[in-house]
Specification:
Order of helices and strands: HEHEHEHEHEHEHEHEH
Helix content: 25-40%
Mean pLDDT: 93
Number of strands: 8
Shape: globular
Low-confidence stretches: none
Number of helices: 9
Largest sheet: 8 strands, parallel
Length: 239
């Protein structure tokens, strides 16, 4: 899908101009959807970008930062511990890394396997672990190899998350399939969200929408947007 024409060229403008443009685009989309913009959380995904950029964005008012690689996220969170940031882990998570991620992440948006959810449960060595917020990731494609729970298995995963007692379920997260019109995909996610809320009344948040499809996500009720390059600029090569 083509990028939103209201967004700036990520190669020409600096972070301040790009952030301002994305914020304006979010406000426009919220207005069109008849929603207050203050109920939408912008999570800036800073994969491969240095901690110095996160610090610059924080100075511009960014409060929520997303990362999807454990080692990189851990290092950045440690370097920027003096900042009042909410760290979101948005990538696929290995169960063996879950407890390490919990030490710095405030939110895990990619709960999609029993083993990952169970890794957050109390243990003998950690009977009262830190409570984090979590989203069940939903796979909106027919490809079982993609991250996320299949729609018909969402309720079972929700029940598993609720049983941990250490993950505060916020709602659902998904990525729109490349071969489907984003708004249609997000409408399906909205329906799944309603099912989740029937089981967990407080879990009404929807994390959906990225640089190119955040307006469609907002139209379908997204409360959290995960936007990267439209704000950060093109990603550096993987370290």
């Amino acid at each position: 899908m083509a990028g939103d024409p209201r967004l700036p060229s990520v190669d020409r403008d600096g972070p301040e101009a790009r952030l301002a443009s994305v914020r304006a685009s979010i406000a426009d989309a919220a207005r069109s959807a008849g929603r207050p913009v203050d109920e939408i959380t912008l999570v800036v995904v800073t994969k491969y970008h240095p901690a110095s950029l996160v610090r610059e964005l924080a100075a511009l008012g960014v409060t929520d930062v997303g990362e999807n690689r454990h080692q990189e996220a851990q290092a950045k969170a440690a370097e920027l511990a003096d900042l009042d940031l909410t760290w979101h882990f948005v990538g696929q998570l290995q169960s063996k890394k879950a407890r390490q991620v919990r030490r710095y992440a405030d939110v895990v948006q990619s709960l999609d396997r029993d083993s990952v959810v169970d890794a957050f449960a109390p243990t003998e060595s950690e009977p009262e672990p830190r409570v984090i917020d979590g989203f069940v990731q939903v796979n909106l494609t027919d490809d079982p190899g993609r991250g996320g729970v299949q729609p018909d298995a969402v309720e079972a995963m929700v029940e598993r998350v609720l049983r941990t007692g250490t993950v505060r379920l916020r709602g659902v997260m998904a990525v729109a399939p490349l071969d489907e019109e984003p708004r249609r995909a997000f409408a399906r996610l909205r329906g799944i969200s309603a099912r989740v809320a029937a089981t967990a009344p407080g879990a009404t948040d929807i994390s959906a929408g990225m640089s190119g499809d955040h307006a469609e996500a907002i139209a379908e009720g997204a409360t959290h947007l995960r936007i990267g390059t439209a704000i950060t600029g093109n990603r550096p090569a993987a370290p």
